[in-house]
C-alpha cells in the first residue's frame, strides 16, 4: 500500500488531492513547513505533494536552489516522487522544479481530476522504470545488466539503433504492441542523449480528455476557454532542452494533428488563446501500439504528420518474439521484488519458467511483471511455485493437477483446499473471458460486485492483467 504526504496550507487543494486517491492508499496531510519536516522524520512517503515555497525557503528560488532542496529530500528518501504545488504567482518556480528533477507540478486551484491524472502518469512512469533499470547500467555498474547481455537478436538490433540515434535531435517513432517497453526505450534514448540533464516529459495522449489535449501539450492563457482561470505552460514548454514523449500518438484527433504538424514544421507554438510564439526546443519521441500507416489509409491519421514523425522508426518486438530474454527479465523482476518486499524468495520453479517460454504473452513485458508481482505476494515458500500463477499460463491446468495432497489433514480440510483452488481458477478464467470488467464478471458469476472485489483481493487477482491480455489495451472500465 502506497503512502502519500500532502503538504500545503491551501485547504481546497488538499481536499481535491485527497479525493483523487484510491481507497487503498495511506494518506497524511500537513499544513505547515514544520509539520512537513516532522512527518518526513516519522515516515518516508512514496509520493510527496508539497507547496514549492515549503520545499525551497530561500528568498529567491532559482533552479540551483530548488535542485539543492530536492536533493536534500532524495538524500533522505532516494525513491521519493515529488509533485510541486504552486500558485499562479509562483508558476515559474513550479516549472523550474520539474526541470530540477521534480516529477510534475499542479497549480492552484487544484482539481481532483488533475491530481488523478498526475498520479496515473506517475504509475505509468514507474512501470517504465522497471525495465529501464534492467536495460541501463547503474552508477556503480554492479547490479544491472548491460544492454549487450540481452540474448535476442531482435532486441540487440533495437539497442544498436538506440545507441546510434540517441545523441542526435532526430524525431523518433517507436511502434509496437502494448506493454513491449516503448516508454522504457524513450527514457533510455533521453538518458543517452545530450539532453539527459534536461526534463523528460511523458504524455499519454490517449489518457487526456479530447477537449484538453491542446491545452496539455501547448498550454493556455487565462480566459482561453471556460475554466481557464490561470495561465498554464504546456508539456512542450516544460520539456524545453529535454525530451517530450508522446505515447499513443495515434489517438489524437485530426484537429490536434494539424496543430502538432504545424509545430513540427515551424518549430514554434502558441499557448491556447495566446498570440506570442514560443520556440519548440524539445526533442520528440512518439510511440504507437497501432499501425499508423493503416490509420492513414482509413483517413484517421494525417500522412504528412506521419512523415514528420517517422524520421527514425524503431519497431519494438513483442515478448513472444524475444523469448530468449524472458529468464533475464523474470530474474530482474524477482530481484526488484526481493528488494522492495523483503521476502526471501530465491528463485522460480522450473515448471513456471517452462510455462513462461510456452505462453503467448498478449500483455508482453507488462503482463510478465504483473504476474511476477502477484505470485510474489502470494508465495509462502522459498520459490515462486506454479500454484500462484494464473491457470491459463499452463497447458491443461497443470498447477491444479500438481497440487500436493497433505494426507495428515482430515478429509474436510482437503475438501476445503480443493474448493479454494477451484473457486480461484473459476474467478480467474471468468474475469479473463470478461476482459477484466468487474460488472460483467459479477453478473455472470451470480454475485455482487462487492463480493467479487473481495474475492479478487482474497486471491490476489489483478483485473488489469486480463484487460491487457484479452483486449491489448489497459482500458479504464470498472
From TrEMBL:
One Pfam family hit: AAA_lid_14
4-aspartylphosphate modified-residue sites: 51
Response regulatory domain residues: 3-123
Organism per entry: Oleidesulfovibrio alaskensis (strain ATCC BAA-1058 / DSM 17464 / G20)
Keyword Translocase annotated: no
Highest taxon, organism lineage: Bacteria
GO biological process: phosphorelay signal transduction system; regulation of DNA-templated transcription
Any one GO molecular-function label of the UniProt entry: ATP binding
Phosphoprotein as UniProt keyword: yes
Protein name per UniProt: Putative two component, sigma54 specific, transcriptional regulator
Keywords: Activator, ATP-binding, DNA-binding, Nucleotide-binding, Phosphoprotein, Transcription, Transcription regulation
Residues covered by the Sigma-54 factor interaction domain: 152-377
